[in-house]
């Protein structure tokens, strides 16, 4: 028998070892990045390793292990979640709502333990995370099952979704891991992730989540794990369940152990002595609350010693050894003075409530987002109404409800505008969307927002070019689209109010610098609907150049992982629009050359792109890509003048024709193998 191709190039022998090494490396870098916050390699380097492992596993499915980092991404959608019964019920906590109630808890504890009322009890104080409780079961060090709290006795099996949490080890770190370890913790979304998810939702005309907790719950209880994988959930572990092969003596010691095994523990947890220190911690956290990157709704105080915890025992639903110290809600009553339609980058018109200014936990609130007119109708919010306003993780607060008993008889329901309040263009409501959109191409706020987006730190990163300067560029008539940015001169900037030589030079330098940003950033900066940072990066990696992306058809786009029909359609619509193409051309002519994230260099196919088409019989498409990439080349989806070779199997169609038309060398499968075999 003829030896298989992969045998001849000696891949198989090393593949298993390489896969193992990649898994170890990736989990190590995951931990550095997500848990220790000290990344040692760039995102692009991480992605390269990840893709290498993915390729290996795609080709050799027998190499896939349940703890492989690739298995975090999620499998097929579920019909429903399976029920899981917790070995130990998941209790809830009794609340204290002020400092006196915290002191009462301390007195209760000491009375039950027969201690003097002035005894300085040792407690562990923790932030009370505003998310949802989960139980994680590690068997022989491997994450085996994860479930929601449910009713405390039975929850839902959310293992596949929990696996997507990058800060959570799929395998405990170290050699002394217990046979069985159950830990409880809180799954939550950072404020940044929450805002990102909501702005994406608004962009596609969906109703946003009311707060980070709802968003976390919605993401965790997603039947399609691929959706969850797009939502960067986090978790902090805070309590043990059943364990075998390890005994914890105290809450403090529990934290120390699980942290060593790689489980995420909130760095703000603190062991203290005496209840006044716990009260001080409660005050401190209330102050820190505003600057934390996630929502907390109080603190939790736990008796540190597990022996004393056992002695204190439990009531039916909550332990006697812990208390949740809740913060006052961040709500206030105020008046809706007006409902103002505001136009965003994509033309979506969002109603914003102008409020009589009111202070909520130290911040003066004068605006609240109402999201869309369906939401206004559902909550029946009218101008002149007295409303409850809440700051819930969003920069802009939300209206919780209307006090109907205080409504004035003349208050009228609000209707979406028929014309754009900014440019007077027609407003349409797209089927299936709750949003209304301005269709005007030259709508000023759309242009303003698209330029601000283009210059943003996570896009082209043009330092200094924020809202204010963009506003001035527009009002001076200096820019009409992002392409105009690259035509600006120092004199243009000098027309600004309070502009100095140095600042103008810096702005120009920042614009100049942006010409060489990575392709992924550039694609993101274009502001294509549905194309977020992550998708843009994936597109950059798959297509390797703007030119290839521009030409990619619907099938090629949807063949990329995580790109569905809606996104693919939106990309096509963007590139089919001649105005967009003209803007891109002008940028390229001005010297914008988005840098392509380099793959392996030095291989014999470096810089060459291959297109595989038709029915392949000697190897699979993935195998082919692997072989090409191994030699530093790229396998792409569409044929252009720059394509080095088109490898055509049977029944090759339009791509083969295109290759002939452009004069690109066409190889049969056999010829490709010969090419590979050449020295
Ligand atoms: S300990 C028996 N610690 O608060 C002890 N809970 O109101 C169980 N929570 O269901 C809970 N942060 O979802 C504990 N640091 C923390 C917490 C915390 C948030 C949640 C948890 C629990 C609820 C109880």
Describe what this molecule looks like in 3D.
The protein has 679 residues and is an alpha+beta fold. The protein has 5 domains: 5-71, Helix hairpin bin (Helix Hairpins, Orthogonal Bundle); 95-326, D-amino Acid Aminotransferase, Chain A, domain 1 (2-Layer Sandwich); 330-428, OB fold (Dihydrolipoamide Acetyltransferase, E2P) (Beta Barrel); 444-589, Orthogonal Bundle (DNA polymerase, domain 1); 609-677, 3-Layer(aba) Sandwich (Rossmann fold). Helices cover 37% and strands 20% of the residues. The protein has 25 helices and 22 strands. The strands form 5 sheets. Strands 12, 13, 14, 15, 16, 17 and 18 form a 7-stranded antiparallel β-sheet that branches. A hairpin with a 2-residue loop joins strand 13 (348-360) and strand 14. The radius of gyration is 29 Å and the shape is globular. The mean pLDDT is 88. The structure holds 2-(butylsulfanyl)adenosine. Residues 91-93, 126, 128-129, 133, 149, 186, 238-239, 300, 319, 322, 324 line the site of 2-(butylsulfanyl)adenosine.
Keywords for this entry:
5 domains; D-amino Acid Aminotransferase, Chain A, domain 1; 25 helices; alpha+beta; 679 residues
Helix content: 25-40%
Mean pLDDT: 88
What is the CATH class name of the largest domain? Alpha Beta
CATH topology of the largest domain: D-amino Acid Aminotransferase, Chain A, domain 1
- Helix tally equals 25
Number of domains: 5
Topology:
Layout: H1 5-8, H2 11-35, H3 43-59, E1 83-85, E2 95-96, H4 99-113, E3 122-129, E4 132-139, E5 142-148, E6 154-156, H5 159-162, E7 180-189, H6 191-203, H7 212-220, H8 225-229, E8 233-244, H9 251-260, E9 270-273, H10 275-288, E10 296-303, H11 306-312, E11 322-326, E12 331-343, E13 348-360, E14 363-369, H12 373-379, E15 386-390, E16 398-402, E17 427-429, E18 436-438, H13 444-455, H14 467-475, H15 490-494, H16 501-514, H17 519-525, H18 533-543, H19 546-551, H20 554-558, H21 565-576, H22 578-589, E19 609-613, H23 621-630, E20 634-636, E21 645-648, H24 654-662, E22 665-667, H25 669-677
Parallel strand pairs: 2-11, 19-20, 19-21, 21-22
Antiparallel strand pairs: 1-6, 3-9, 3-10, 4-5, 4-7, 7-8, 10-11, 12-13, 12-15, 13-14, 13-18, 15-16, 17-18
The structure holds 2-(butylsulfanyl)adenosine.
The site of 2-(butylsulfanyl)adenosine has 15 residues, from strand 3, strand 8 and strand 11.
